[in-house]
Amino acid sequence: MSNPTTRKPAVDGWFTMPEVGSSEAPTLIGCRCGRCGTYVFPPREGGCPNPSCTSPELERVPLSSRGRIWSYTENQYAPPPPYVAADPFEPYALAAVELEAEGLIVLGKVPKGIMAADLKVGMEMQLELDTLFVDDDGTENVVYTWAPAAPTGGDDR
Ligand SMILES: [Zn+2]
């Protein structure tokens, strides 16, 4: 295809989408209660979910882009509607990653080619963007994924 590719988030407002080639890293967007500090993902309208807090509003905030695997699974079958699955369907892994700073667990797909056998509980993951599917007009629909984090340079032999 010779046309410049258009990209849009497959879900609006759940993550930032830096330009292709930008050095900026994508970030999840959640909500935080200014009164009790409770974090929520995905972002939503309305009051604080904490039953012992009466704050009527939440603030949009960026969330950590790294976390550790709390649980994971592998989908061997296409998800039911309204999820749009690749056709032909390819099995993929899902990771539930715990954001330490926020104490939130965020479920996300793992990039293609990385399966459950490659994952383990406690593994450090980082947020990346991936194309979920391409529209008929060539627009890429982008989602966040959890990819194994790049080593931070520590030598633990
Ligand atoms: Zn609250």
How would you describe this protein?
It is a single chain. With 157 residues, the chain is mainly beta. The protein has a domain at 65-147. It contains no helices and nine strands. It has strands spanning 7-9, 29-32, 39-40, 59-62, 66-75, 92-99, 104-109, 124-134, 140-148. Strand 8 and strand 9 (140-148) form a beta hairpin. The chain binds zinc ion. Zinc ion (ZN) binds at residues 33, 35-36, 38, 48, 50, 53, 55. Zinc ion is lined by residues 33, 35-36, 38, 48, 50, 53, 55.
Total strand segments? 9
Structure ligands: zinc ion
Inertia-based shape: globular
Mean pLDDT: 89
Unreliable runs:
none
Number of helices: 0
Order of helices and strands: EEEEEEEEE
Distance between the termini: 47 Å
User: How much helix, percentage-wise, in residues?
Assistant: under 10%
Alpha-carbon Rg, integer: 17 Å
